[in-house]
Amino acid sequence: MFNIDNLTRKNIQALVPYSSARDEFSGEAKVFLDANENSLGSPLTKWYNRYPDPHQQKVKEALSMVKAIGTEHIFLGNGSDECIDLLYRCFCNPGKDNVIICPPTYGMYEVSANINDVEVRKAPLLDDFELDLVHLENLVDAHTKLIWICSPNNPTGNSLNRNDIETVLNNFNGIVVIDEAYINFARQKSFIQELNDYPNLVVMQTFSKAWGLAGLRLGMAFASKEIIDVLNKVKPPYNINQATQEQALKALEEVGQVNDMIKELVAMRDALAEVFTQVPTVEKVYPSDANFLLVKIKDARKVYEYMLTKGIVLRDRSNVKLCEDCLRITIGTEKENTILVDALVEYLESNT
Ligand SMILES: *Cc1c(COP(=O)(O)O)cnc(C)c1O
Fold first, then answer.
1. What is the extent of the structural domain holding 237?
2. Which key words are in the record (predicted)?
């Protein structure tokens, strides 16, 4: 049975978290002399002289409406990267516990594990980029704390089979993290609404992709109140800065505009996939549920380098297992996509 207390590191269970000035007083007052801020102001906007809300209550309330989930189920991190790191620090004992990843996948799960001295076990995806459930199950032991599932997956672009993910959720007593960074571009629906059914589920999303706010650094984790409470205990008190909180609040009022961008990107993705299929040296355009395409192309490395000479940067995944000869290509603007296709045609003309 899933039991949060058995999973949480003993030192974290015992931890008395830092109590900030703004934690100890949160009512209405006229004079704030409790946090050693600069009472005169700042060279910038006046309110940047104050520490931000450590619990990001306003952002969470707005997000709660958009995602149809209670604020107590929401954690905000300085990018998803902070959420990833915190999951290790809360639940994985260095040098003792292990986690499972399913490569090819997002690189930070492994890097963050290495930083935290946590063993990484690998159950590679099958040839069709789906989960290898048998391999996964064989890797689990009493010290396995987290299983990382990225869906839609980076760099393969596909959503993983929903039944497979549910099988993992139903049979693993540790935490299953589903990274939904690209969910807004997917035909699949989010797992957020399944949180009530799975006490061991953490869903991660981000403002960096569909929301177009990679520069603000704002990541989200959705989970049971018990898991969120542990993350809150360990996070730095002011991990989301004032500017980010303000801008995120504004963005959350523009859901319509974001949905329009998503539709446009999806349409361009599907059009670009069509164009690539016509290219003679393209062996495969993988179906994508994200805002990028994984393209298997003859002499991928050479194409990558040619594009660089034209000032076009793609992501070379050609030496990643299961992605041999593949380039990962983000969907650009209409103009950028045209520049890319024109450059590819030029490359083919000069190389045949
Ligand atoms: C881009 C991406 C993220 C986003 O990370 P941030 O730190 O929020 O910018 C998370 N997971 C995956 C798989 C990604 O590709």
1. 4-253
2. Aminotransferase, Transferase
Band (pLDDT 50/70/90 cuts) for residue 33 is very high
Residue 106 in contact with ligand 1 by CB distance below 6 A: yes
- Domain count for the chain, please give it: 2
CA of 81 to the centre of ligand 1 (A): 7
Whether the full predicted model's pTM is greater than 0.70, yes or no, is: yes
Residue to substitute in 206, 244, 317 for testing ligand 1 pocket (most ligand atoms within 8 angstroms of CB): 206
Are residues 239 and 267 part of one domain? Answer: no
Whether ligand 1 lies within 6 angstroms of the CB of 258 is answered as no
Span between the terminal Cα atoms of the chain, in Å:
61
In the predicted structure, residue 26 carries a pLDDT above the cut 80: no
User: Residue 32 Cα, ligand 1 centroid: separation in angstroms?
Assistant: 37
What residues form DSSP beta bridges with 294? 328
Asked whether the predicted pLDDT for residue 158 surpasses 90, the reply is yes
Q: Which two tokens stand for residue 307?
A: 């594009």
DSSP assignment of 138-165: HH--TTEEEEEEESS-TTT-PPPPHHHH
At 297, which CATH number?
3.90.1150.10
What's the CA-to-centroid distance between 166 and ligand 1, angstroms?
A: 22
**Atom number in ligand 1 closest to CA 82:** 7
Task: Indicate if 48 and 167 belong to the same structural domain.
Answer: yes
